[in-house]
Amino acid sequence: MPYKSEAQRKFFHANKKKLEKQGVNIEEWDEESKGLKLPKKAKKK
């Protein structure tokens, strides 16, 4: 699943150890988001 915003990407990298303990593979997210133009913040629904 690719990142929805630049803020989400920064959060994942800042909390990498904590998220990897929960089973999130950050490298996979980076791979899927590669080349996408991300907004600074995601819009609320």
Describe what you observe in this structure.
The chain is mainly alpha-helical. The chain is globular and about 30 Å long. Helix content is 51%, strand content 0%. The longest helix has 9 residues, at 6-14.
Shape summary: globular
The count of strands amounts to 0
Strand content: under 5%
* Coarse structural class: mainly alpha
The whole-number mean of residue pLDDT values reads 93
Low-confidence stretches: none
Gist of the model:
The chain is 51% helix and 0% strand. By secondary structure, the protein is an all-alpha fold.
Features:
globular, 3 helices, 45 residues
Secondary structure layout:
Blueprint: H1 6-14, H2 16-21, H3 26-33
